[in-house]
């Protein structure tokens, strides 16, 4: 027995504003039946003694701790720049003068 009917699929398609042919509606009804059957099997496997989890393995943070370290001075950063203007990197203009 079909879990979802063709008229229900047509209604869902209208709600989602998806134009579907009759063949597509028939095929989608079968495909949605398969999806709903799979969800039903998963729901049947759920037991009270198994806690809900978002991941099969425990997560842990693998990033290094933040440590403040001295960075480059403005002069050191600009030392290798091809062009410098007013203590800043000078780059070619990419937008018109109006921008």
TrEMBL record:
<dbReference type="InterPro" id="IPR036113">
    <property type="entry name" value="Asp/Glu-ADT_sf_sub_c"/>
</dbReference>
<comment type="subunit">
    <text>Heterotrimer of A, B and C subunits.</text>
</comment>
<comment type="function">
    <text>Allows the formation of correctly charged Asn-tRNA(Asn) or Gln-tRNA(Gln) through the transamidation of misacylated Asp-tRNA(Asn) or Glu-tRNA(Gln) in organisms which lack either or both of asparaginyl-tRNA or glutaminyl-tRNA synthetases. The reaction takes place in the presence of glutamine and ATP through an activated phospho-Asp-tRNA(Asn) or phospho-Glu-tRNA(Gln).</text>
</comment>
<keyword id="KW-0648">Protein biosynthesis</keyword>
<protein>
    <recommendedName>
        <fullName>Aspartyl/glutamyl-tRNA(Asn/Gln) amidotransferase subunit C</fullName>
        <ecNumber>6.3.5.-</ecNumber>
    </recommendedName>
</protein>
<keyword id="KW-0067">ATP-binding</keyword>
<comment type="similarity">
    <text>Belongs to the GatC family.</text>
</comment>
<dbReference type="InterPro" id="IPR003837">
    <property type="entry name" value="GatC"/>
</dbReference>
<keyword id="KW-0436">Ligase</keyword>
<keyword id="KW-0547">Nucleotide-binding</keyword>
<dbReference type="Pfam" id="PF02686">
    <property type="entry name" value="GatC"/>
</dbReference>
